[in-house]
From TrEMBL:
Keywords for this protein: Membrane, NADP, Oxidoreductase, Transmembrane, Transmembrane helix
Entry keyword NADP: yes
Transmembrane segments: 6-24
Name of protein: Uncharacterized protein
Source organism (scientific name): Xylaria flabelliformis
Protein function: Putative oxidoreductase.
Amino acid sequence: MPSSTYLAGAVTVLAAVFALRRILNTKNYRFGLVQPTEERVLILGASSGLGRTLAKQYAARGAKVCAVARRSEPLAELAQECGDGCLPFVADLTDVADMEKLRELLLRQWGGLDTLHICAGVSAVQPVMALAGIKSGNEEDPDAGSVRSATEIAGRAVQGNFFGPLTAALMFIPMLKRTSPSPAILLVSSVAAIVPAPTRGLYAATKAASLLLFQSLAIEHPEIAFTCVLPATIEGNFRSSAVDAHLSQKIDETNKKGLKLEYVASRCADAVDEGLRGNIVLPWMPYAIAHHLYYILPSFIEKQARKKYNFTA
Ligand SMILES: NC(=O)c1ccc[n+]([C@@H]2O[C@H](COP(=O)([O-])OP(=O)(O)OC[C@H]3O[C@@H](n4cnc5c(N)ncnc54)[C@H](OP(=O)(O)O)[C@@H]3O)[C@@H](O)[C@H]2O)c1
């Protein structure tokens, strides 16, 4: 049988498995327990991009929304656009004292929490060796200072993409379980966490770390519906947050070609409404397939990834 027939067969089987998984993982009960206009929603990372769009969608349907980020100006603008339902709170997700104040505020104002969306994240865009100043084609050994500087940059990615979500989980899981009839947590991860790509090593590794952390939390806390959304590139300025931005020249360009913010935000809200558990890969094709194909044909995925990123080894 030709290999294209095997591939078509494998794709069909995977598609059937994913369709079945979606049916089995959907509980569809949440609106019976949490009315959309009563829902208390916390969005971490809401001053721009996906979190901001999500906050506006929740406010438009009458939910109580607490929008959190470090920059106060865009948060104040968001609160004005959203009206009374929006509670802005300036805080750093990785700062335990900030998160404790936030928890106290939510208990005081709302008496608890139903839904937590963790949208905050930081990008990284350099090949791993470039973090230590080694360019492609250069086989020199980096000195200790360069390696140290690379690990410091990596620490910022770990801080933003792993310690941040970890702090949020530790701070809010008990309160969600205690105060909501149908608690839900959605982590915005990335396709990069499951499909390797050149120049995204740091980003991918740190997003994968929090993804696995939340998948484990889902097993430890079955009362909470955990959803992880793994989008491909989204329109916007995410790359300007890169922890290694100082090593690159053209990073400020707004990406206009990615997934639409409204689309990704409504997929996040819908997933929580439906009680959908597990990973949602956006778009499913080709990335969910690529993830599984990596186990069968790693060199094929590696070649495609180099091509997509125009990367020469
Ligand atoms: N854009 C993409 O192509 C893409 C693709 C796949 C997945 N994702 C994921 O999607 C999520 C949202 O990305 P986006 O495109 O919306 O990026 P964005 O526009 O840069 O938004 C990131 C948000 O997170 C906040 N934030 C970052 N670190 C924070 C911290 N320590 N404490 C509090 N808030 C913090 C930022 O606000 P402040 O700076 O004001 O704190 C901002 O509101 C990220 O988790 C990212 O990994 C993005």
